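re: that chain from earlier
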Amino acid sequence: MNAVTPAWVRIRLRTAPGAAAALALLVALTACLAAAFPRALDRYENAGLARAVDRAGPPRTTFTMSAPVPAVPDRQREQALLPPALGRQLTKVLDAVPRPLVADPGQSSYGVANATDLAVPDRWIPRPSGLPAKMRLVAPNGLAEHSSVREGRLPRATGRVTASTSEVEAAVSAATARSLHVRVGSVIHVPAMSGPPLVVRVTGVLTPREPDGAYWSTMPLLRTPALVEVPSDSPEPPKYWLGALLLPSEAAPALMGTAGTPWRYWRVAPAPRSLHAHDLEGLKSAVASLKSGPGLVRVRAATDPVAQVGTELDDVLLSYGRLSSGITPLVAVAAFGSATVAAVVLLMAGGLAADRRRLELTLLRARGVSLPGLAGRLLAETAVVAVPAGALGLGAALLAVPGGRPGHSVLAAAVVTAVACAALPVRALIAHRVVRVHGPREDTVSVRPSQRRTVAELTLLVIAAAAVEALRRYGVAGAAENDGAPGGSGDQLVSLAPVLVGVIAALVLVRLYPWPLRWLMRPMGRLRGAVGHLSLARAGRTSVPAVLPLLALLTALTTAAFGGSVLAGVAGARDQAALLAVGADARVDGAEALPDGLPDRVRRTPGVRGLTEVSMDYQARTGTNARISVAGVDPADYASLARRTGLGAFPGEQLRRPAAGSGTPLPALASPSVAEKYGTRPFTVQLGDGTEVNIRIAVVRDRTPAVIGTNFLVVDRAGLSRGVARASALLLTGDHLDAGALRRAAGADASVTTRAGERGDYVDSPLQSGAERVYTVAVAAGAGYAVLALLLALLRTAPERAALLARLRTMGLTRAQGRRLLVLESLPQSLLAAAGGTLTGWATVLLLSPGVDLTAIALPSPAVSAGGNELRTDPLSLALPAAAVLLLTVGIAVGQAWWTGRRGSVRELRAGDAR
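^ sequence. v structure.
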């Protein structure tokens, strides 16, 4: 930088403080949004992973290392079960955990437990079915640190405990004491391997300090007893209680004398805050290493050569990865669209500054300023404003969005700042590479595209076609998997597909734009009045660089159409899944037949428009003893409900019961699986009350409102026995149903499920809700930048239009004609952008819909999906942005005409001939 540059910068900032402040505001806002985006992604992805791990629970996510008691002399076996040996081994196991997986020492534990639960003969312990209760002896470490004594005291081991010890102390959890009637001082006799049973005296009742933590929840039996059912064909299988007796860790050798086969265990709980979504592949590798890789070798070296490692954390990570791979590319679509529009706006800001200062820069070049010197001056004056603004935007993003990796945010803000700094110098270098007083005219209707531009456009066309084909063939998630890893180059190319389609459409429309103008010039020239002809002539003299605002508008409109269709599709998928789960807008179910007056009370509830009574029988069996769900309905009401909900509509008369005494089987609506099995021949169904009914399938539908599943029959309940025909469910339709009022009307013996409530439960993960929010913000930001691009495009020619109006007013142009002139001048490009954006958005959704499945972002799992969650065009997302572009353009033109007329014409006429 030479000595003249600082003085140049000071003079420029004093001369145009408003332009500098506008640039600083634009850079700060863009840098803030760019820096906040990766932090928001990290934040909701990490929250989604934490939710997935939390819902899986410690039984699935904790690493359990187990090994049998070593086959060594008795004295060494006893030592191997005592805390010093097990504690040293746990320390080595924690050190063997590979990064990025981090263990939580506070929730990790070790101990000894029986592998076989032992039946105890004590009859004072409850026996629900006459079977003796079973106990599991566990000697964990750290009872004092992880529990508080509710009654009595902690158990102790006095003296040396061996396999021949006849009596030990133990504690139980409060839940175990309550369910098994255990009190302080109770004595439980545990069968020994030989000789008299081991006497276990309860000395304390404990309350877990963190009952949901890994220490207590990895083996839930430690805190909560279980009522175990014995496998049986009986409708009420026999049951017995299973509880845990918590021995002091020093008493672990006593387990060797029981018949329960003691095992040593070391449990390693992962630290929840150490699980980051961006480390997903590393976490999977770490889990695989501990289960069957180098990590397992180190665990066995630290504990026992035959130790085994068990966990389901790998399944949890795999499930989360599948969910993330279906959501992240969709969010990337909005991110790329918004980033493209923001970049165009920054370039337009630099182009606007270069156009406003064209005479000044031309004079500098004529006086001998070199291109590097000119670029250095412009870069310095821009950097003085943009760099502090970018840093301010970065700081605001870091404060506004806590969490996440700062590196990506710093990089994003740096890129924004670099683009802002380079836009003006690069534009000036291109415009003033040759010293000349007057540049050539670059009218849209006269300039012919160069061969270099044609090659570039064809290259973009090939890339866009490849991206669209990849998305249609592999889908948003499949492209990433096919490329090798989520976030790979294939994934990014697919996410760029809507943006590339918008870019190609913008280039095509710029090439086509002169043709309608040339075609309209001739008829306009024959009309009376000069406004129409002059407006088209002005529109045709628009400079070629107008491709940038058109690119911004088309990209924003395409992204808005795609994003609006995604959000509308997500809402539609949730509505349809909730409708399938409920069967109507609300459902009232009873364990048995509903009271006679209940339907009338529910019908009078505010908002209820229709009510259909259903008699459900889930215990019905066919002749082959296969269980089947049978719904008895009123054919007319039920057919109307099916037609309104769109769930398997059918003519009501096809289910109507035949005349009594005719011997004709009862017609039924059946699922495809039932219809395939029985065809159209009559067959007998035994109902839950023992009565039989002869049925013939008359209608086949994939789904029906009354029954969830694929194995059902729907019949006229007038043909059922009196007991079975009583209503046990009510299907309600209506707008704005009040769930509380319905529950009050239904009473305590009936359950109420609403479609709205079911829909709200489908936002299962912060990954889904966070993706929706980020997607919405990204689309809104893209729309905002598109509006800014339109403003910059109009602002670029504002002085020229103001001067034109001033001259024309001296020739007799009225204010109304001036407004009409500016509106008609701006309409061709606005109509082009609006129509092109609408068509491009429609085509983008149509082209890409086969590869976009909204199940991942809309529903908690594919199991609740009704299918058909492909992307569909949302008319509002196409029409509203296009209409907004037209209204904004007309409003700006009218506003400029009004403001110019109010200011007068002296200043514009004095300014000279502005080109």
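Residues 479-490, 911-915 have pLDDT under 50 and may be disordered.
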